[in-house]
Specification:
By secondary structure, this protein is an all-alpha fold. The protein is built from six helices and no strands. Helix 2 packs antiparallel against helix 5, helix 2 crosses helix 6 and helix 4 packs antiparallel against helix 5. The longest helix has 29 residues.
Length: 200
């Protein structure tokens, strides 16, 4: 009979040293997911570049322009992303208060889904109405990071169901996704509000 103690049942922490057999599979999964995300980002950028801008795409009653709709939807997406960040800190017990409440996990998941859903009309407007532009540095980096956002999103979604990943992988990609979305908002919606005011 082995003298080693039995592992604690339900212990949530991952082992400090990954199993040798799982490490190559986990690394391969990360590589495949990153390549898939890169392909999506490049495809969106290529479409935006070769597509002739139509200068009109999204219109909602009560808003003055498609740009106003885009800016407010982007602001909604960023607001939900901020909740995502805060709820992630609570889930990983990085905030005072001990155990996370039961509702925080589904709230985290659904806020992420709603944030991406809010961003879709924004992406459609940018790609269809405006295309990938490089007229100045703000517009160029906005276009670049807009495509990059969906590439990182695809990478994260394909990794969420993978087993054997290091515990830092998903938080790092989630943090990158948050940073990219905020940067896209700063170079579009914030610029719009500073130019026109908080108008609809």
């Amino acid at each position: 009979m082995s003298s080693e103690p039995a592992p604690q049942s339900g212990y949530p922490c991952a082992p400090t040293r990954p199993l040798p057999a799982r490490a190559p599979r986990a690394n391969a999964a990360i590589l495949v997911s990153v390549l898939a995300g890169a392909a999506v980002a490049v495809a969106l950028g290529a479409f935006g570049k070769v597509h002739d801008p139509q200068f009109f795409s999204v219109s909602v009653a009560g808003f003055s322009s498609g740009t106003a709709v885009k800016s407010w939807l982007a602001t909604l997406a960023v607001s939900l992303a901020i909740f995502q960040l805060v709820s992630a800190f609570i889930m990983y017990r990085l905030t005072p208060g001990g155990r996370a409440p039961a509702w925080i996990v589904p709230a985290h998941v659904w806020s992420g889904r709603l944030a991406v859903l809010a961003s879709v009309p924004v992406a459609v407007h940018c790609l269809y109405a405006l295309g990938f532009q490089s007229g100045d540095s703000r517009v160029f980096f906005h276009s670049l990071f807009g495509c990059f956002f969906y590439g990182v999103f695809v990478t994260k979604m394909t990794l969420l169901t993978r087993k054997g990943l290091q515990p830092w992988v998903i938080p790092i990609i989630g943090g990158l996704l948050f940073f990219v979305l905020v940067y896209v908002w700063l170079t579009s919606a914030l610029w719009f509000f500073e130019t026109t005011g908080l108008t609809f």
